[in-house]
Amino acid sequence: MAETHKQSLTAIWISLVSNVLLTLIKLAAGLLFASPVLLADGVHNAGDIIATVAALTSSMVSKKPADEDHPYGHGKAEVVASALVAVILILAAFWIGAQSVGALFKEPESESLIALGAAFLSLVWKQALYVYTVRIGRDANSKSVLATAYDHLADVYASLAAVLGIGLAVVGDHYGWEWAAYGDPIAGIVVSLLVLRLAVGMGREAVDILMEKNASTEKMERYQALIQEVGHIKRIDRVRAREHGHYITVDVRVGVPGNFSIQQGHDISREIKARIMESDPDVVEVLVHLNPWYED
């Protein structure tokens, strides 16, 4: 657990430094070569810095142990950060879309090969960061690292649009294709829709967890099957499971023979807990309530 947490923090720190460097490169290239698409992408990257700082902070907070005020731990800090990243991406999607639509009605700017190189560098860099962070996020089941990964993926879309748009404009300048200059804003509109779709999916997942939606159907079915395998279980009254960022807590209510001793009931509870926690490493707590069952 400590090792995966260290890897998560390393991934977020690398993302933060990368976002700062890419923001400076894009803004500098956009200003020097009057590239609207690079300026827009640079401003978008500036928003990514805020999102990454939120992910870093939440990742550190989420690993704090449970205390008197937070008996279930601090895992949902990661979910809050994920929701914040989703909001930033939604705003970025609308901003990119508005800038792209506005560019359709303006005199197109000439693009340079250096601006194209900056956009291509961003594309390759962000793709590498996405592959790295999504692997770490899935291994650690970290919502904040996964949010950072999907933020990188949104940047891959934006950078791809910049490469296509600037590249088309450069080719158009060379061959005298005036229409080619509008490839940039059209690509930007498509990217804004892709980023919006990605952000809405992230936001929906974060809201589901914050509203204490049950764990996935697959997990719930597995928990119930494990409980049914325990001896002397006569009835499953209720099974609930809720995510707290990178871990899950499970509540179980089952019926056992009413004439069992406290020791027998205790042993059944321990077996239920052990089976579920051994089956799913994401589960950190299983609370079992026993109800008396009598034959009719």
Integer count of domains: 2
CA radius of gyration = 25 Å
Distance between the termini: 48 Å
- Rounded mean pLDDT is 81
Find the count of extended strands (DSSP E, 2+ residues): 3
Structural class: mainly alpha
CATH architecture of the largest domain: Up-down Bundle
The fold-level CATH name of the largest domain is: Alpha-lytic protease prodomain-like
Number of helices: 8
Identify the CATH homologous superfamily of the largest domain. Cation efflux protein transmembrane domain
Strands side by side in the biggest sheet: 1-2-3
Order of helices and strands: HHHHHHHEEHE
Question: What fraction of the residues are assigned to beta strands by DSSP?
Answer: 5-15%
The low-pLDDT segments are none
The helix fraction, in percent, is: 55-70%
> Quick one: CATH class of the largest domain?
Mainly Alpha
The biggest sheet amounts to: 3 strands, mixed
Please provide a brief summary of the model.
The protein has 296 residues and is mainly α. 69% of the residues lie in helices and 10% in strands. The chain folds into two domains: 2-210, Cation efflux protein transmembrane domain (Alpha-lytic protease prodomain-like, Up-down Bundle); 217-293, 2-Layer Sandwich (Alpha-Beta Plaits).
Walkthrough of the structure:
With 296 residues, the chain is mostly helical. It folds into two domains: 2-210, Alpha-lytic protease prodomain-like (Up-down Bundle); 217-293, 2-Layer Sandwich (Alpha-Beta Plaits), CATH 3.30.70.1350. Helices cover 69% and strands 10% of the residues. It is built from eight helices and three strands, in the order αααααααββαβ. It has helices at 2-32, 36-62, 76-103, 113-140, 143-175, 183-210, 217-228, 262-279; strands at 235-243, 248-257, 283-293. Strands 1-2-3 form a three-stranded mixed sheet, covered by helices on one side. Helix 5 runs antiparallel to helix 6. The protein starts with a helix and ends with a strand. 43% of the residues are buried.
